[in-house]
From TrEMBL:
Family annotation (Pfam families): adh_short
Keyword vocabulary terms for this entry: Oxidoreductase
InterPro entries linked to this entry: NAD(P)-bd_dom_sf, SDR_fam
Gene3D superfamilies to which the protein is assigned, alphabetical: NAD(P)-binding Rossmann-like Domain (3.40.50.720)
Xref: SUPFAM superfamilies: NAD(P)-binding Rossmann-fold domains
Protein name: SDR family NAD(P)-dependent oxidoreductase
Coiled coil: none
Gene Ontology MF term list: oxidoreductase activity
Amino acid sequence: MLDILEETTASLPWTIRNKYVLMTGATNGIGLAAAHALAKNGARLGLIARNKDKAEACAARIRLESGLSHAHIDIFIADMSSMHSVRTVAEEILEACPRIDVLINNAGAFYDRRYWSEDHVEMTWALNHLGPFLLTTLLLSRLKENVESRIIFTSSHGHKMARNGIGYGDLDGSRLYGPFKRFLGGANLRYGETKLANLLYTVELAKRLQGTGISANCFDPGLVSTGFNMNNGMLAKMTMSCMKPFSRMPEKGAETLVWLAESTELTGQSGNYYKDLKIGNPSKAAQDLSSAARLWEISEQQISHILS
Ligand SMILES: NC(=O)c1ccc[n+]([C@@H]2O[C@H](COP(=O)([O-])OP(=O)(O)OC[C@H]3O[C@@H](n4cnc5c(N)ncnc54)[C@H](OP(=O)(O)O)[C@@H]3O)[C@@H](O)[C@H]2O)c1
């Protein structure tokens, strides 16, 4: 019966209704707004969150506010900066989800000083790049089982801050988070490097996935009023509230993300960077194919070192 259903739907145009969408970072900001919209439009959701109570409260809110008391929402718990946690949650997901249609790597943060992840990796790099890299790698086999699947990364205009590319020789951020350097743009540069990594990974992934039916795209949500940068003390909170009048609401920030997940016209489009429902302008560093290949190789090495 399932085979017949699969054969019949295979030739139909893409629709989000009944698709299984797995997302990180859906407990706040852009991700939460996207989860609301996707549930409302008929997607079945799997939320990967670090805080179970918060994730359950979000699921309850989505069900209530979308008027869909029986909306399908699974919750999986993981710290996306910990490679052991990501590996464990991927195993749980593969066990629990016979089908994944869309994977949205959205969780991310900015850190104004150097923190170490559980695996002793600089935190911004671990959370914004290495975690999504590993999660995607571990779920690829399931995504490949469909006629069409989509992988989406939340990148940022901020990738342009890393105009000289990624400092592969200093992935632990020593040159960026020195005593004064973090105030002189070092922390911004590190964030920019990780968002550049989202773009370069998208390009390399799309290249490697050609012919599989899986697309990989990323987008810039614009400046959005969320919990972003609220983890960096009073001054950062004051800065973010000053920027609020110039920021978008989370629903607007999520618009391109929802469109990338839902739009029929995007079938077959892969390896692109979008902004405001159209192709955006990536930096020159984001078009460096040798850097994209190097990023892949270095990320694999880092992960195998951590998990060995
Ligand atoms: N806001 C902007 O102006 C802007 C602009 C460009 C790009 N972005 C990107 O947009 C994405 C979403 O950010 P946002 O603005 O919506 O910020 P946000 O409101 O702070 O949301 C961040 C999300 O990531 C989750 N998260 C953070 N650390 C995590 C961890 N270690 N493990 C698992 N989940 C974790 C958070 O979970 P909790 O709810 O538990 O904290 C939350 O769900 C990020 O990738 C960010 O870089 C934002």
